[in-house]
């Protein structure tokens, strides 16, 4: 009769639990079906425990974590350690209201677990009870929950972060799913396993270890320290079994809910959009927070959408036609969602059709591909620009996979070889066969010997085109990939048709040869001019001077003087022309540091007779040393400036010479008081054979051209300007100072 009363009581508890547990704090994010499953499992466990407890009491059997025994096993090595105690029938401690209060703690929360652990502490009247989780393959104990009696002192925890192999007796017993009772840790400690010696560090009298089992494996254990009722608990463990089993259920339930919450949290925090739709009703069952945040719709708004609004928002990927066409899964790489604001969000959707309980569901995981689309657009624009640049530069593009011999190229590359792109074989072997036989080995050798340290190359070679004869190509490229032996396995580059350039270079070479021959003829002519013409002119000069000395006839003397002046002019022209030719053929001069002020004084002294003849004076308005790196030929510049100043100035005027400091250069200026030079003529005064005025002066016009060339060879410059102090001109030259 008692047995069936207990069984009836258990069934009544099941009924009450099925009513109360949905309100006991089970994870609010769990679906209704998951809640029903949890309730059903808890009810089955409670019913099972109640029936087993009733049977064990009636038959004098007490289960120890699922195992029932009749008699007490002898102590281990004579120690007061009982692994399988003998049980006698006793009345159940807890009344119905207390049971309901304890069962209400099965909420899957840490608070509920702490309270159940507190009930165990109060039942056992201990100083401390704990729950440890066994983690890892090396079986390390981690304390997760702790209850301490008010006023008790928490000492060192020998189990926390310790390997269970350090407690062989306790661990082996728990592995066998047996509860360990130790009434006195101080008795027989020298004969017992090392467990007791370790326990003595924190336990004063008694110790109980209760293994917790899930899916056939011990995942943790409960410890009870210094209980005052260890003996009675060992004899009548029913209440302890009840509470420890409830604690096990609560811990397993919390772990499940934590994992469920973690999964739900991960889903909500996912960067992807996740939505579940009922195919039969076309209703949204669930969405993650990411989709809500991006579209502007709340979860409630999604779940309340009708079919038309849902299709307008996410499309019709859940339509049954897709299932019939694509099967249980398909990928749409170019779709879009519509936000509440009307904005289109490009997405890539992975759709899975699921059948469950004769119902059909659709799980869609969509990824926002806005950035990818933008990158694709940018990439396409870049490709268009590159192609435009290649076309504008008339460049062919090619990409060679050395390992497969595959060659990718654009239309221009094929056109250079006389093909259309569709007709040119896409392999390098064909291109290599088109390279001119005199260039082929060299080009292939260059490509084969590219290394990571020098991946670039540039070669000019000839190709035999299809129907267009031989062409010259300029090919530039870079090896972008190498194998393990540092040999190129991918080469990319461009090609340019340089046939016209090569032809121009050949024409330039021929012209250079002609120019060289012309220069040689010029030098030959200069030598003839200087020697072969100068000698007869000198002879004329000598004989004319002799005749003038011996002639008394005035008419003949006049004729001889004209001959003498013309011959002097000829000699001056020959000498000046030879100087200019020599200077123009020179690429450089040897320089030495000289005082240009001293050179000017020397030149002025040499021209004194000419200056005094016109009753003119030279004023040097400088003092000190003016060092410059010059060649002695610089005297020609100063002499020319002074000579021209005398020639083109009136009698009884003066010539001023200044040296100005212009930082890193000296500016030497010769100013006269002549008629001056117009602004229109100033740009031409230094041109060869150009003299802006010939009034009263005879000359070739080569002097200033020689001055300009000498200045160029010195790295300086020359010029002319109006005399700032009055009428006349100022000729100047800039020379580097030292």
Overall description:
With 738 residues, the chain is an alpha+beta fold. Helices cover 43% and strands 24% of the residues. The chain has a 7-stranded antiparallel beta sheet, with helices on both faces. It has a 5-stranded antiparallel beta sheet with strand order 11-10-14-13-12. A 5-stranded antiparallel beta sheet has the order 16-15-19-18-17, with helices on both faces. The radius of gyration is 56 Å and the shape is elongated.
Which features does this protein show?
43% helix; disordered N terminus; 26 strands; 5-stranded antiparallel beta sheet; 738 residues; alpha+beta; 7-stranded antiparallel beta sheet
Task: List the SSEs and their pairings.
Layout: H1 2-20, H2 32-59, E1 62-64, E2 67-69, E3 81-82, H3 96-103, H4 110-124, E4 128-135, E5 140-148, E6 162-163, H5 168-175, E7 180-182, H6 194-199, E8 207-214, E9 217-225, H7 230-235, H8 238-269, E10 273-278, E11 283-287, H9 289-295, H10 299-303, H11 307-314, H12 320-326, E12 329-338, E13 344-356, E14 359-368, H13 370-392, E15 395-401, E16 406-409, H14 411-416, H15 428-434, H16 440-448, E17 456-464, E18 470-482, E19 488-497, H17 499-532, H18 534-550, H19 554-584, E20 592-595, H20 596-606, H21 608-613, E21 617-620, E22 627-630, H22 635-647, E23 654-661, E24 665-671, H23 703-713, E25 717-722, E26 729-736
Parallel strand pairs: 21-23
Antiparallel strand pairs: 1-2, 3-7, 4-5, 4-9, 5-6, 7-8, 8-9, 10-11, 10-14, 12-13, 13-14, 15-16, 15-19, 17-18, 18-19, 20-22, 23-24, 24-26, 25-26
